[in-house]
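Researcher: I'd like a candidate sequence for this fold, 519 residues long. If you have to choose between options at a position, lean toward the conservative one.
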């Protein structure tokens, strides 16, 4: 494994403080090692033991179709063993002093940083992230764990004295774990979202049964290894693999699961929200996607606006819940803005994402290609393609970044696609942009570019979204970081309104108990 960078060296989604020559050299070496090691068969981890399973699934790289790994699909018996094992292990873990839990998880975060090149290389190969995005994903994973640990520490383990009605009355509010959380993670942020969701649950004293996306099982195993090597007791973090409809659903339906934390589609999330509680209500913490708008005002800096929209629309091939997928432009600057946006988009390099010059890699699978081509066909009915609109040659799932000019009532302004496709429309005012933006069922992120402070304040106050940005050249709607921007979904984009990366997240994995002693 390549040597780790100094602790002060970091790459996020919007900034880099690393020695880039050293970064590229170490990343290239990690990719070469990962490719040389490809094709192995791996096991799940249940109660700390390797469980090989029987039904194996091949994980192929979206870049070139190369076999990366084989992982089992958990059987009902194996899934049952994982949940029951987590239930047993949680008793000791939940009884452990909270400072000791923090110590172990902080060590896991340090191990993620030590192994960040190895992890980032696997992220690139499994899901097609370019090197900068893959490293940002890995750095964020460690920062999320540390940030949630600090929340618990700053709140003294969430033990707080309350008031008195009698002089001999002593009452405290204490937050305690629920028990076992099912953690079901997506492919697009395979290490950071897994570490963030699973880490917060563990810090709160819960055990976790973790199922990564079928698209990134090896990244998930590397997270398990960091937690295990940090000293996490056997059984506290169970690692199972398989697809969502079969294994994922069986996991959240297990009667011994006390809570679900999930990032994925709105359709699946609403199903979990409706059908998971049976005998009594249980926590369901979810982030469910977005259809994120940006407004470009007549006073906007068009160079900054076109940069910000382009980066948010086409970073990770548009496969971000926070991706900018629609932009409303004031009619007075529409033509000038679109000209800049199209010009910059056409300069993006699409190809093998491990190459230094590549910005956009492949979409995750053939189903995404079909979604993309379907959106292109839909755009041509009532609108026009300004750039892109085609599948690119090669073995992988490569498509061109696409911008379509559409009427404001076109269905592509409202349907989440999760592909590199941006809808552009013309508006007469800020009020019109806000009204159009809020028509969507989703409410995750939104951006505005304007020189007027009063327009920013109005936009922030009236947008029905959990995350809002103004004049952000590095990403109009994307780039949230732990402790810097909370990432909270409203409406169809989430279930709690208290998001990851924010100050209220970790407490959601615990329930309150009021304790009164008469002395």
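Model: Candidate sequence:
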């Amino acid at each position: 494994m390549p040597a780790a960078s100094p602790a002060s060296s970091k790459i996020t989604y919007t900034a880099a403080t690393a020695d880039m020559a050293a970064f590229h050299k170490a990343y290239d070496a990690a990719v070469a090692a990962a490719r040389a090691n490809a094709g192995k068969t791996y096991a799940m981890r249940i109660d700390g033991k390797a469980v090989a399973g029987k039904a194996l699934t091949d994980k192929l790289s979206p870049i070139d179709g190369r076999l990366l790994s084989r992982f089992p699909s958990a059987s009902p018996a194996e899934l049952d063993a994982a949940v029951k094992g987590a239930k047993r292990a949680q008793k000791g873990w939940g009884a452990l002093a909270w400072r000791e839990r923090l110590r172990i998880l902080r060590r896991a975060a340090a191990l993620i940083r030590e192994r960040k090149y190895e992890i980032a290389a696997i992220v690139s190969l499994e899901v097609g992230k370019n090197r900068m995005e893959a490293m940002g994903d890995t750095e964020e994973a460690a920062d999320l764990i540390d940030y949630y640990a600090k929340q618990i520490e700053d709140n003294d383990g969430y033990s707080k004295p309350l008031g008195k009605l009698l002089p001999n009355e002593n009452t405290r509010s204490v937050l305690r774990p629920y028990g076992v959380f099912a953690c079901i993670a997506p492919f697009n942020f395979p290490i950071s979202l897994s570490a963030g969701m699973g880490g917060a649950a563990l810090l709160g004293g819960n055990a976790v049964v973790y199922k990564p996306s079928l698209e990134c099982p090896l990244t998930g195993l590397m997270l398990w290894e960091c937690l295990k090597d940090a000293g996490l007791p056997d059984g506290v973090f169970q690692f199972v693999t398989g697809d969502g409809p079969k294994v994922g659903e069986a996991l959240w339906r297990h009667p011994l699961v006390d809570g679900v934390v999930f990032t994925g589609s709105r359709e699946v999330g609403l199903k979990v929200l409706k059908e998971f509680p049976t005998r009594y209500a249980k926590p369901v913490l979810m982030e469910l996607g977005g259809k994120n708008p940006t407004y470009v005002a007549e006073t906007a800096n068009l160079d900054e606006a076109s940069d910000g929209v382009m980066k948010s629309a086409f970073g990770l091939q548009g496969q971000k819940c926070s991706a900018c997928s629609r932009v409303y432009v004031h009619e007075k600057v529409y033509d000038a803005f679109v000209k800049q946006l199209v010009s910059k988009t056409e300069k993006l390099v699409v190809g093998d994402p491990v190459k230094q010059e590549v910005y956009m890699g492949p979409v995750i699978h053939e189903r995404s290609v079909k979604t993309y081509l379907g959106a292109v066909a839909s755009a041509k009915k009532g609108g026009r393609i300004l750039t892109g609109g085609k599948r690119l040659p090669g073995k992988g799932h490569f498509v061109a970044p696409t911008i379509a000019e559409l009427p404001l009532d076109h269905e592509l302004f409202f349907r989440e696609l999760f592909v590199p496709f941006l809808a552009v429309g013309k508006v007469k005012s800020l009020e019109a942009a806000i009204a159009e933006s809020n028509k969507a069922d989703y409410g995750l992120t939104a951006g505005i570019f304007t020189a007027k402070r009063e327009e920013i304040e109005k936009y922030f106050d009236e947008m029905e979204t959990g995350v809002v940005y103004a004049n952000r050249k590095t990403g109009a709607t994307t780039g949230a970081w732990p402790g810097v921007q909370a990432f909270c979904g409203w409406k169809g984009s989430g279930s709690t309104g208290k998001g990851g990366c924010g100050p209220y997240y970790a407490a959601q994995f615990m329930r309150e108990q009021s304790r009164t002693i008469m002395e």
